[in-house]
Each structure stands twice: as structure tokens, then as C-alpha cells.
Amino acid sequence: MITLTKLNGQPFTFNAIYIEQIQSNPDTTVMTTTGRTFLVKESEEQVVEKITGFYKEIGIVRASDKEGEDK
User: Fold this and answer.
1) H or E stretch including 44?
2) Side-chain-facing half-sphere of 46: CA atoms under 13 Å
3) The pLDDT of residue 36
4) Using CA atoms, how far apart are residues 59 and 65, in angstroms rounded to an integer?
5) Which of 4, 15, 31, 62 might form a disulfide with 40, Cβ 3.0–4.6 angstroms?
6) What is the DSSP letter of 45?
7) pLDDT in tens, 16-61
8) Are the CB atoms for 51 and 61 separated by under 8 Å?
9) Is 14 within 8 Å of 32 (Cβ atoms)?
């Protein structure tokens, strides 16, 4: 789970496994696999960092994995 912040300043916890797409328009929009959309204060880069950290924590991505590296 990752913590994000709604535009009104309210933090919420989100299961990052359900994130399908992130866009900056300029607000950061997080879209889920179920079609829900959330606007958050964090930048796209910050959300990606949080997701990557979560994936490493639960073992989906190894700490030594690098983007674009074939396994």
C-alpha cells in the first residue's frame, strides 16, 4: 500500500497493484484497473517512486532490478 494526498490535502492509502496509468495534466491523475480516477498532489515521479518501493517491499521487483533490464 502507498499513501497519496488528495488535492484537498487529505491523505489516503492506496493499493498500488491496481494502478494502471499515471498522467500529469498538470495535476497528477492516477487511473486504476477498474476505471477509477484519482487526482493527487504528488508528482508523477513521486507516485512512481512510491509504487516501485511498494513493489520491492512485497517482492514483485527485486532491489537490484533496473528499468528496461531483461530477466
Assistant:
1) helix 44-58
2) 12
3) 95
4) 11
5) 4
6) H
7) 999 999 999 889 999 999 999 999 999 999 999 999 999 999 998 7
8) no
9) no
